[in-house]
TrEMBL record:
Keywords: Glycosidase, Hydrolase. Residues 2-106 form the Glycoside hydrolase family 3 C-terminal domain. Its EC number is 3.2.1.21. GO terms for molecular function: beta-glucosidase activity. The lineage of its organism: unclassified sequences, metagenomes, ecological metagenomes. This is Protein containing Glycoside hydrolase, family 3. InterPro entries: Cellulose_deg_GH3 (IPR050288), Glyco_hydro_3_C (IPR002772), Glyco_hydro_3_C_sf (IPR036881). Belongs to the glycosyl hydrolase 3 family. Pfam families: Glyco_hydro_3_C (PF01915). GO terms for biological process: carbohydrate metabolic process.
Amino acid sequence: NRLARAIFALGKPVVTVLINGCPVTVNRIVKKTDALIEGWELGQEGGTAMADVLFGKTDPGGKLPVTIPRSVGMVRYNYDEEPSAHRGYLFAHNSPLFPFGYGLSYTTFRIGAPHLSSPTLAPGGAVTVTVNVRNTGTV
């Protein structure tokens, strides 16, 4: 936190790159950063790929495959303990910081109706949801 505060105190434009394996809360950084890039788990060539984005060699774009919570209290937890007074947090009227599908794109898409592989789900079973996505833009 001290390093981030010192960087923001310089008064220069700041691009924040997150490198993490799951959604994290970033409220304080979002309020101060000029751009936020979710890098997830970049892998061996991730640094090169991120440099290409940051220095304009390629156009960034993407949509979130998850919801980014506004606070830690919105993160799902599984405890093998007795229920607490906070067990209904998932049903609270708190909006996420960034909803599923949020992101930057230089084109537009049309998303078709979802199709289920089965109308029912048996205990321990699986259902596949398929949607057609069509690029309706010029890029």
